[in-house]
Amino acid sequence: MFNSTLRQLGAALRAKEISSVELTQLYLNRIARLNPALNAYITLDAEKSLAQARAADERLADGDASDLTGIPIAQKDIFCAKGWLTTCGSKMLHNFVSPYDAHVIARFNDAGAVNLGKTNMDEFAMGSSNETSHYGAVKNPWDTARVPGGSSGGTAAAVAARLCAAATGTDTGGSIRQPAALCGISGLKPTYGVVSRYGMIAFASSLDQAGPMGRSAEDLALLLNTMAGFDERDSTSLQRDKEDYARDLNKPLNGLRIGLPQEFFAAGLGSDVAQAVEAAIAEYKKLGAVIVDISLPNSRLSVPVYYVLAPAEASSNLSRFDGVRYGYRAPDYTDLTDMYEKSRAQGFGAEVKRRIMIGTYVLSHGYYDAYYLQAQKIRRLIAQDFTEAFRQCDVIMGPTAPSTAFKLGEKGDDPVQMYLSDIYTIAVNLAGLPGMSIPCGFGANNMPVGLQIIGNYFGEARMLNAAHQYQLATDWHSRAPQGL
Amino acid sequence: MSLSNADVRKVARLARLAMSETEIESARAQLSGIFNLIAEMQAVDTTGIEPMSHAQDVSQRLREDKVTETNRREAFQAIAPQVEAGLYLVPQVIE
């Protein structure tokens, strides 16, 4: 049951082979047994989950079920869910019980899915290892001495350990794709504007995008069908016709043009990762794809550009946490400014404070042109590289991350080393393009390797098609960690 | 590029983050490392390039000027640190 696809689970539920209450309870039991070692979930509420499961069983009995009715899904703790503790991995929101639902949560609720719990994450989604969470690091289910990646590390670990049928993530600079790669699962960041950000706690608003994480491309397509769509409550939500993201899954790949950016295979890429990615490209050739060599000359600048733009936007977004209306307030203070300064100093962790300070600095008087404006100009150069590349190819492929999962504590106090683990994913957010990661083998220490697939704007169905055909021909995506 | 402790102190004040002198010292070292990474940008010639402020070049959508939200003051204040008679309480600002 824990290895079933979403379609299989949906069919079993509709055929009454199992009820949603039974399925939810099976997952809750498994979580109780395995989560203490992984720390993938930070909030569980069995009563709420089972109440949703009972409602789903009624819908199933009435013949009013959608593809996801009764299926237990985990939610990244960045999504506000009414009545659920929603912490965003921070002490700042340690007591924040959301009074409303995020758009994504509402869409899953409307579909009749069961919210199985809230998954751990880097604090305010700032991190690439899940070690910045106030609630403790998440452990990688393939080796609990290693990180799961971040910031959607709790989600990635929960999916890999079969502690949910599928789950949600968010991706500002690689936070869906990098943990998906490090935990051996599939994850997709849609085109900017496809999924509403309403009720998703903001980090860097011009980059943030929610997406599905699961065990196969086929599952992702089903989840994205539920998550995507126009929402007037998000001013950047795009008004587009409804799409069926599963429509092209079964198309053959004959003639698919795959662009390989030379910059993604240069110095800095681990040889074990390179080997697995090259083997995946060889498999695509067997499936009929054609390889095109491309160049993204400005992509090397994506890390510096990102570490100006994302902190700048974050410093503005996180100014709302002031200890007045919700969240943490320091116990002792002398006046209003002291209350702000102490509440924020005590409520935010080190990485979040670091990024708020970078952002405050680059936006401050006298530095705006040299940093913020210059970064926005280079952002356009990076986006134009992709536009140029997509004249010659249909999808771009390469590694998701330069190495497999590193050890907990390994990158410790060097933020710059940590930032470089997103070197292949950040450019995609800056351009606003869709990107995904799928498992494509194992590297050093038998840890999973992810293949990144980047599509043109609104190219999700084509990317999912490419991923699904690969998953029909290989079985990397169905491998599970031992001993769980 | 290297920052001074005074730079860091100023930024911490602008960001409303209380910091001890030891914290300022360690933040200075780490921020300087990050700004060295960022410095790579400065060598790029961006003459005539339009800044890209958003992932999609779309214009802001307008909506009708009408009330769409209901008053949920009680629900919102139930999670506030300190409220009284429907008001959020903070230390006195006006004598």
Please render the helix and strand layout as text.
The complex is a heterodimer of chains A (484) and B (95).
Chain A: H1 6-14, H2 20-38, E1 41-43, H3 46-61, E2 72-76, H4 103-111, E3 114-119, H5 153-160, E4 166-171, H6 177-183, E5 186-189, E6 209-214, H7 217-227, E7 257-261, H8 271-286, E8 290-294, H9 302-317, H10 336-347, H11 350-363, H12 368-389, E9 395-399, H13 415-419, H14 426-431, E10 435-442, E11 448-455, H15 460-473
Parallel strand pairs in A: 2-3, 2-4, 7-8, 7-9
Antiparallel strand pairs in A: 1-3, 4-6, 5-6, 5-10, 9-11, 10-11
Helix pairs in contact in A: 2-3, 5-6, 7-15, 9-11, 9-12
Chain B: H1 5-14, H2 21-38, H3 73-77, E1 83-84, E2 87-88
Antiparallel strand pairs in B: 1-2
Descriptors:
heterodimer; A: 484 residues; eleven-stranded mixed sheet; 38% helix; globular; B: 95 residues; mainly alpha; Histone, subunit A; two-stranded antiparallel sheet; 3 helices; flat
**Spatial sequence of strands, sheet with the most strands of chain A:** 1-3-2-4-6-5-10-11-9-7-8
Q: How many separate helices of chain B?
A: 3
Main beta sheet of chain A: 11 strands, mixed
Strand content of chain B: under 5%
Give the topology string of chain A: H per helix, E per strand: HHEHEHEHEHEEHEHEHHHHEHHEEH
Query: Can you list the strand order of the major beta sheet of chain B?
Result: 1-2
Percentage of helical residues of chain B? Answer: 25-40%
Largest chain interface and its two residue counts? A-B, 72 and 50 residues
Q: Oligomeric status of the shown chains?
A: heterodimer
Compute the number of strand runs of chain B: 2
| Helix and strand composition category of chain B | mainly alpha
Total DSSP helices of chain A: 15
Q: Give Rg of chain B in angstroms.
A: 22 Å
Shape of chain A: globular
Largest beta-sheet details of chain B = 2 strands, antiparallel
Distance between the termini of chain A: 14 Å
Determine the N-to-C terminus distance of chain B. 44 Å
How confident overall, as mean pLDDT of chain A?
97
